[in-house]
Design brief:
about 240 residues, Protein-Tyrosine Phosphatase, Chain A, about 5% strand, globular
């Protein structure tokens, strides 16, 4: 895979000066925001001048916006335990990952993302959601799979999010535990699990069989466009 032309991240909000300098060094042309309107309104995008900002509302057609709503629920440990305990949070994430494949809004916006990433005039580029693990996680996993990256490496890359996201939200997790509940629920909300990505791949395979057909039939990205992506990103 080529390096230095596409990046993924968590939300670009509340950025420290040193981190902004790191962003500046990437010389980004485009930033793709996969968040909901509520997320964008709460934490507006912070970009350097000259970076083109593109909103891709992946969950626009979701009745509950899945992962996007769970951070707020974590603020009430008792309610979260009642609504999300006993495996409910995991089931909710699996349902959301299925939506990443099947929702019309997800298909539209992932199409726009990949076509954008396939245009060298848009690069270097960055794409993100709130915590860089669910919407962004599927976007990266599907892209790597199309590039021919072995599935075990795709999962390895996906699960690495736990190394970054869980420590970043230590304070929120500690506050949840201090409310009289264990850390299992917030870690299931803020982290990733193999079962989450399994749900997306199962949905994709049940509907389309292989990743190439997901791109062609689900996203409307034809064989020539897929090949153009491979030409751009494979070295």
């Amino acid at each position: 895979m080529a390096s230095g032309i596409v990046y993924r991240s968590n939300q670009l909000s509340g950025i420290k000066p040193d981190d902004m300098q790191t962003l500046a060094a990437l010389n980004l042309r485009n930033a793709y925001d996969l968040r909901t309107k509520a997320e964008r309104d709460k934490r507006p995008e912070e970009l350097l001048p000259g970076v083109n900002y593109v909103v891709l509302y992946v969950l626009a057609d979701s009745p509950q916006a899945g992962p996007a709503m769970l951070e707020k629920l974590m603020e009430d440990p008792k309610k979260a335990n009642a609504e999300l305990g006993g495996g409910k949070v995991e089931a909710g994430f699996q349902a959301s990952y299925q939506e990443f494949v099947s929702l019309p809004s997800a298909q539209r916006e992932f199409r726009n993302l990949y076509l954008g990433l396939g245009n060298k005039d848009n690069l270097p580029a960055l794409f993100h959601c709130t915590t860089d693990k669910d919407r962004t996680g599927w976007a990266a996993a599907a892209f790597l799979t199309l590039m021919g990256v072995p599935k075990d490496k795709v999962y390895e890359d996906y699960l690495r999010s736990n190394n970054y996201v869980i420590p970043a939200y230590k304070k929120a997790i500690d506050n949840f535990v201090a409310g009289g509940r264990g850390a299992e629920i917030p870690k299931a909300i803020l982290g990733v699990k193999k079962e989450y990505l399994d749900a997306a791949f199962d949905e994709m395979e049940n509907k389309y069989g292989v990743i190439e057909k997901y791109f062609s039939e689900g996203l409307g990205i034809n064989e020539a466009q897929q090949q153009a992506l491979k030409t751009l990103y494979l070295r």
